[in-house]
Design a protein that fits this description.
Number of helices: 10
Helix content: 40-55%
CATH class of the largest domain: Alpha Beta
Number of strands: 12
Shape: elongated
CATH topology of the largest domain: D-Maltodextrin-Binding Protein, domain 2
Order of helices and strands: HEEEHEHEHEEEHHEHEHEEHH
Strand content: 15-25%
Oligomer: single chain
CATH superfamily of the largest domain: Periplasmic binding protein-like II
Distance between the termini: 51 Å
Radius of gyration: 21 Å
Length: 250
């Protein structure tokens, strides 16, 4: 076979392989400050959005985003209604429901917020919190040690971060367990920057991932995106995107 004809055949075969791998991808999540958000104009933005756009482009996929309440977004990925869930922390229970990316793409610091002027602190000893009311956000994961102490703390549950901050401001709770990324953005939005402060001792460090549905097609998608993600890391593009969105990365 002449060389020119052989090259043409190889190009056509490669293009056909790429086309056969291309997928329709729906990525869902809830509002995560700087990670997965939607502007008033309807544009999706955040580190997770930019990463997925880069991964989809490298693989020739068609990509859509949708924002739902966190429980609904998880249900959709678990029940094959969406291919990707954006941003969950990894837990043994969630690993049963989803296939997690090889690497995390952002890092959160879990901390306690208290009211300004309260002079409250924390030394890392959970027993010292028994005399206080501790608030948590419904559906949030705070790390194995904290979750193991829930029976001791008997925390009050807020149905959203905004609700939790309002409970703290109204003195219904003394400590609010949250992450700095979401909370600092929310406090700024609410105009409450002078009303709260962060306790120095960190509860835990949690890494956020892309998680995939358990279907075979999602597993193939995960493998392709894991490979493309490594290229983002090695090229320095991930670090560049993280700086753009002011998000910590592992």
């Amino acid at each position: 076979m002449p060389l020119f004809r052989l090259l043409c055949c190889l190009i056509v075969a490669f293009a056909g392989q790429q086309a056969s791998q291309a997928a329709e991808v729906l990525a869902v999540g809830t509002e995560f400050a700087h990670v997965f958000e939607r502007t008033p104009a309807g544009e999706f933005t955040g580190l997770g959005v930019d990463i997925l756009k880069a991964l989809a482009k490298r693989n020739g996929d068609t990509l859509r985003f949708e924002i739902y309440p966190w429980s609904r977004a998880q249900w959709m990925a678990e029940n094959d209604q969406a291919q990707i869930l954006v941003g969950p922390y990894k837990t043994p229970e969630r690993e049963v429901r989803f296939s997690f990316a090889r690497r995390a793409f952002y890092r959160d610091y879990m901390v306690f917020y208290v009211r300004s002027g309260s002079n409250l602190d924390w030394d890392g000893n959970y027993a010292s919190l028994r005399a206080y009311k501790v608030g948590v956000i419904l559906g949030w994961v705070y790390g194995a040690q904290f979750d193991g102490m829930r029976a001791l703390l008997k925390p009050e549950t807020a149905n959203s971060l905004t609700n939790g901050l309002n409970m703290l401001n109204a003195r219904r709770i003394d400590y609010l367990a949250s992450n700095m990324r979401n909370t600092e953005a929310m406090i700024k939005t609410l105009g409450l920057s002078n009303d709260f402060y962060v306790v120095d001792t960190t509860i835990d460090i949690q890494d956020g991932y892309l998680a995939y549905c358990k279907q075979a097609a999602c597993e193939q998608l995960r493998l392709r995106y894991d490979e493309a993600f490594e290229q983002l890391v090695e090229s320095g593009e991930l670090a560049k995107l993280a700086r753009k969105h002011k998000v910590r990365i592992p």
